[in-house]
Amino acid sequence: QVQVVESGGGSVQPGGSLGLSCVVSGFSSREPAIGWFRQAPGKEREGVSCISSSAGATYYTDSVKGRFTISRDNAKNTVYLQMNSLKPEDTAVYYCAADYIRGISSFARNIFGVYWGQGTQVTVSS
Are 52 and 36 in contact (CB under 8 A)? Predict the structure, then answer.
């Protein structure tokens, strides 16, 4: 059974940094593409960033380009999201999703995610 577990959320002041981790376990021999989503209160879920199975391709939504960096270590079954220069509008619950069928092009069209984590809260406030 595939499990997805996020960690690393917390509270930070504007301009600060946080790093999120996503561990995916229980999968078959094929590595999944991994995407990060977020959902703020009263807002729809938003795709933030995605990384291909081989880490050869990445995607960022416009609002986080230049501030967030996604990476993965397949030996540790872990995907990371480094978030710098955080803004209050980055406040949300961040979710990690794994998909063995779809990739970045589907993520960009918000068609992604077979296995989901429970989410981790990120709060940016002074």
Answer: no
Mean pLDDT, residues 84-110: 94
Tokens of 17: 């940094």
> Quick one: tokens of 58?
């990445």
- Of the candidates 102, 123, 105, which has an alpha carbon nearest to the alpha carbon of residue 38? 123
For 107, the enclosing helix (H) or strand (E) is: helix 104-108
Single-letter amino acid code for the residue at 71: S
Q: Is the dihedral of CA 49, 50, 55, 57 positive or negative?
A: negative
Residues 44, 79: Cα–Cα separation, whole Å = 23
Instruction: Assign 93 a pLDDT band (cuts: 50, 70, 90).
Output: very high
Pairwise pLDDT comparison (28 vs 59), residue with the higher score:
59
What are the tens digits of pLDDT across the range 66-84? 999 999 999 999 999 999 9
pLDDT at 110: 85
Task: Cite the DSSP H helix spans in the chain.
Answer: 104-108
Residue 106, Cβ density class (10 Å: 0-12 exposed, 13-18 middle, ≥19 buried): middle
